[in-house]
Amino acid sequence: SSEFEKALFGGYDIPSVDRFLNQLTQDYSALYRENGILKNKMKVLVDKVEEYRENEDALRTAEDADPYVRQLRLYFPDGDGRYLASEYHSLTLDEDTSPERYVIEELLRGPHNGELKSVMPAGTALLSCATADGVCTVDLSAAFWENRPSTSLGERLVIYAIVDSLTALSGVDSVRILVEGTAPDPYVHRSLIEPMTFYEEVI
């Protein structure tokens, strides 16, 4: 509610009424804009959910058609480079194929989706990758250290692209990252000595 000043000769003071109406108009315009922004955000979320549902249906169809094909979820930085987004890569299973190795090799190759970004430091090569007792140990070449990101955000995206992609595999509960056989302490700001588990907040 608003109280208006009385005019000198009765009635309300016109300037104070005008100021109130102007403020009311500004408040309404701001609410209208905020409502539009919220509607757009909601539409984006609805579209994303629908896209995920379609992807899941397509993946189930592909796996039903060929039991030797697996669809693996990999994580890459989104277009803004602040969070990770997922996409699926197909793996044809055989006795010589390790899903863990495939995940790292695909992270090194980069995303299929042009809206996502490559994440692994330039020149990085996979030396070994094996899982024991739920812990997947990934040993990478020196380039993973030498060309590491310079910021905490970049570090987080690199580390959890690896960790979240690998822990999406059945039987992998945590991931240990080595460089030439040694765990960096720290990598940029974070120690890699202890195995790491899935981190949802970066997605």
Would you give an account of this structure?
The protein is of the alpha+beta class and 203 residues long. Helices cover 41% and strands 18% of the residues. It contains four helices and five strands. Strands 3-4-5 form a three-stranded mixed β-sheet. It has a two-stranded antiparallel ribbon with strand order 1-2. Helix 2 (99-109) runs antiparallel to helix 4 (152-167). The two termini are 44 Å apart. The mean pLDDT is 85.
Average pLDDT level: 85
If you compute it from the alpha carbons, what radius of gyration comes out, rounded to the nearest whole angstrom?
26 Å
Largest sheet: 3 strands, mixed
Tell how many strands the DSSP assignment holds. Answer: 5
Strand order of the largest sheet: 3-4-5
The fraction of residues assigned to DSSP E strands is 15-25%
The number of helical runs is 4
User: How do the helices and strands follow one another from N- to C-terminus?
Assistant: HEEHEEHHE
> Any low-confidence stretches, pLDDT <50, length ≥5?
none
Terminal residue distance? 44 Å
Class by SSE composition: alpha+beta
Shape descriptor reads elongated
User: What percent of residues adopt helix (DSSP H or I)?
Assistant: 40-55%
Characterize this entry briefly.
It contains four helices and five strands. The protein has helices at 14-65, 99-109, 143-146, 152-167; strands at residues 69-77, 84-92, 126-132, 135-140, 174-179. A hairpin with a 2-residue loop joins strand 3 and strand 4 (135-140).
Strand and helix map with partners:
Elements: H1 14-65, E1 69-77, E2 84-92, H2 99-109, E3 126-132, E4 135-140, H3 143-146, H4 152-167, E5 174-179
Parallel strand pairs: 4-5
Antiparallel strand pairs: 1-2, 3-4
Helix pairs in contact: 2-4
